Amino acid sequence: MGEDRNPYQYSLGNPYFPYAPGSPGHTSAINSTPSSPAYGGGGGGGGGYVPHGPIYSNAPHRYPGQKMPGHGGMHSPQMGHTVPTYQQHGMQTSGAALSSAHTSAGASNGQIAGPFHQKQVDSVMSSRQAASPHHHARVAAAANRSAQNNPSANNDGANGQTVDPNAKPSEWTVLDLGGMQMKNISTSLFAYRFLTTLYLNHNAFSSLSPEVARLTNLVVLDVSGNRLSSVPPELGMLVELRELLLHDNELTFLPPELGQLYQLTILGLEGNPLTDPVASMIQKEGTSAVITYLREMCPVGAPPADREWIPLEDEYTGDTKDTFTVMSWNILCEKYATQQMYAYTPSWALSWDYRKDLIVQEILNYNADIVFLQEIPMGQYEDFFREQLNQAGGYEGLFFPKSRARTMAEYDRRQVDGCATFWKSNKFTLLEKHCIEFQQVAVQNPALRKTDDVFNRVMIKDNVTTVALLENKETHTRILTANAHLHWDPAYEDVKLVQTGMLMEEMDRLGSKWSNSSTNTAKSRGSAGNETNRFPLLVCGDFNALPTSGVYEYLSRGRVPQDHVDFGTYSYGPYTSEGLHHKFSLKSAYSHAGELEFTNFTPRFKGVIDYIWYSTNTLDVSGLLSSIDREYIQRCVGFPNAHHPSDHLPLVVSMRVKSGSNQSLNK
């Protein structure tokens, strides 16, 4: 990924939902976001956006059954509107507080505790007004009839036409089952994953099925006025929720998994016998404070099972001197891991001190011979990773930061991230190194710098690639490696394709240069001429490109046409007049077993954007690390979390140099 993360969150955005909060058909009295400092409120943290499994083993305490309100109503002079009559448990309707037998903490004598408590009271009163059967559906129908009878509201009265003849059939996303006194509901309901709003209010449910977690598009869920003594922890998986109304139930506690609902703006809890600190917190500090508290206090669930190793060939019986393992991982830079971007993650699990130790532990656990890391800050490379990996793993390293670092003061430079390559010092020697700065490559290419789009789109992105030529100390086989991190923004698919084109051109140039250098003729090993494709080649990193992208097509096929859709309408000299070509025979290592389900995982994006590319004419893949346990993933809303320090997965593969490869270098 990169700065302003998560790159792919835009794909879901904030779609318009019929009768969502604030629309004519929605009757919630709450239309504004609480103003308290929110980690979870407001939706900025789609991060992309720590998930743990249910943690309760004991049955929750049940409060004595609360009877249901009647459908009648009485006038409240203080509020100036009609509210249902609550005859059971001595419920009162005097004043805005509407105190019940389940008097809220901090609101003794019916007094409003503050603005957050007032919002709870307003919300519960709106809920109680909706106690009649299908109240919300009736309100929506009335609003639609009114709109249809008002030509000016539909088409400014033009020619008397009120209906668009080309209009598509409406798609319903709201379901109102409120006020029906139902005791049970079919689990078939939870197959309606298109639902964005679900009203189950004012029924007689004593429990809510965990299957509700399947309704992943829910924005509003109202289960007020039931007999719930608990709600399932799985509710925490509904990360699109903005309103969760639990008024007038029998809840004494909330599962901490609800802390994952980082976009929640209204958590309706009035009329429940809740205990502190939640009872007082919801009134004094509001929804965001409660969600933050639950998230920070959520116990850490069981870690996932170890990722399985997938062998791709029978046990190799030949010479193992030319076999090696490779790891590539975007570790999530400290400055990008903000609570606003990753609001579903507890602050302690998001802290750099916690994550950096976990990152080093993960690297040492896999113990790869060559390690490619992206988004590693310069200061952290110099002060932490280089030393830790050298002492504990026997690694040496090479690092280049993004281009912006060259114009910054020392303190600011140390915050800039870049790409670091590490190798086992007892296995490899570094022969050559180079930093590919895409800005510089573009401006130095006469054919590219003639176009305005290069200056307006490519030159403003300062991504880099760390290139290293490594030599096996035993066999003297040389491996040309590239550790790349392309631009993140999906609105710049053209830039990613141009960056990849420049990357492969530079790898061709460097390979040719180093093949003819004195380094390659050392120890009387001869010259390779210009046959750069005889180098075993690795191109690894975070490409921010899906398997359906032009970047993937270009690397895997060796070409893309000049009119490829990813170029859009932009002009990039020969790239868009002749197309892109490279002469290396590359393949994604994971394509042997099918690309993983994802390499990047947040609530708003789950897909493959990281790769280990290798030259098929010189290297074979003998095994690879599988994905994470599916059962564990089903309990997660996204990474990072307590077990995974980055929103990306580390990729690990085992490779072997083909017999006869590098012959021109190793005569």
TrEMBL record:
Residue intervals of the Endonuclease/exonuclease/phosphatase domain: 327-648
First-level EC class: hydrolase
This protein's UniProt keywords: Cytoplasm, Exonuclease, Hydrolase, Leucine-rich repeat, Magnesium, Metal-binding, Nuclease, Nucleus, Repeat, RNA-binding, Transcription, Transcription regulation
Database matches in InterPro entries: CCR4/nocturin_mRNA_transcr (IPR050410), Endo/exonu/phosph_ase_sf (IPR036691), Endo/exonuclease/phosphatase (IPR005135), Leu-rich_rpt (IPR001611), Leu-rich_rpt_typical-subtyp (IPR003591), LRR_dom_sf (IPR032675)
Keyword Metal-binding included in the entry's annotation: yes
GO CC field: cytoplasm; nucleus
UniProt superkingdom: Eukaryota
Reaction catalysis annotation: Exonucleolytic cleavage of poly(A) to 5'-AMP
Required co-factors: Mg(2+)
TM region(s), chain numbering: none
Main subcellular location: cytoplasm
Localization annotation: Cytoplasm; Nucleus
One Pfam short name: LRR_8
Gene3D superfamilies: Endonuclease/exonuclease/phosphatase (3.60.10.10), Ribonuclease Inhibitor (3.80.10.10)
Low complexity: bias regions: 139-155
GO function term, MF aspect, one: poly(A)-specific ribonuclease activity
PROSITE patterns tied to this protein: LRR (PS51450)
Entry EC no(s): 3.1.13.4
Biased composition (Polar residues): 25-36, 90-111
Positions of region (Disordered): 25-45, 90-167
Keyword Membrane annotated: no
UniProt record similarity statement: Belongs to the CCR4/nocturin family.
PANTHER family membership: CARBON CATABOLITE REPRESSOR PROTEIN 4, POLY(A)-SPECIFIC RIBONUCLEASE
Name by which UniProt lists this protein: CCR4-Not complex 3'-5'-exoribonuclease subunit Ccr4
Organism expressing this protein natively: Geranomyces variabilis
